[in-house]
Amino acid sequence: MQEIEYLFYLTAERTDRLRVTAQKDRNEVLQFVVQYEAEFSGEWRPVVRYDTAHGFAHRDVIRANGEVVKQPLFFDTYNLAFTHATLDLKLNWRHYKEDIARELEK
């Protein structure tokens, strides 16, 4: 089994990052976490997390008040869900950051 773990910074300022962990057996993803984290006031906050906890692939949107909104993913394999998670967060992290920033301002 192969374990993968890394941080991927989305900005040169290193204020936005992806935290990625996965376990693979050959070319099959067995479980994963892909989490977008943003730095606010010197502290890292999880904003959106894709993972396979609870036995199924899903997305957790973490609200400013700590509430977690769970949304199931409907992919045939964890490989497809993992790829979707990585691409979604790399493409849409700015949108997710704007959403949480608005919530934090309230």
Question: Would you give an account of this structure?
Answer:
By secondary structure, the protein is α+β, with helices and mostly antiparallel strands. The chain has one domain (2-105). Helix content is 26%, strand content 47%. It has one helix and six strands; from the N terminus they run ββββββα. It has a six-stranded antiparallel beta sheet. The longest helix has 28 residues, at 78-105. The protein is globular and about 45 Å long.
Helix/strand layout:
Elements: E1 2-9, E2 16-25, E3 28-40, E4 43-51, E5 58-62, E6 68-72, H1 78-105
Index terms:
106 residues; alpha+beta; 6-stranded antiparallel beta sheet; 1 helix; 6 strands; globular
> Strand order of the main beta sheet, please?
1-2-3-4-5-6
Mean pLDDT: 96
Note the run of SSEs as H and E. EEEEEEH
What share of residues is helical?
25-40%
Structural class: alpha+beta
Over all CA atoms, what is the radius of gyration? 14 Å
Principal-axes shape call = globular
* Main sheet record: 6 strands, antiparallel
Return the domain count.
1
Number of helices: 1
β-strand percent reads over 45%
Uncertain residue ranges: none
Counting DSSP E segments of at least 2 residues, the number of strands comes to: 6
Question: Alpha-carbon distance between the termini?
Answer: 45 Å
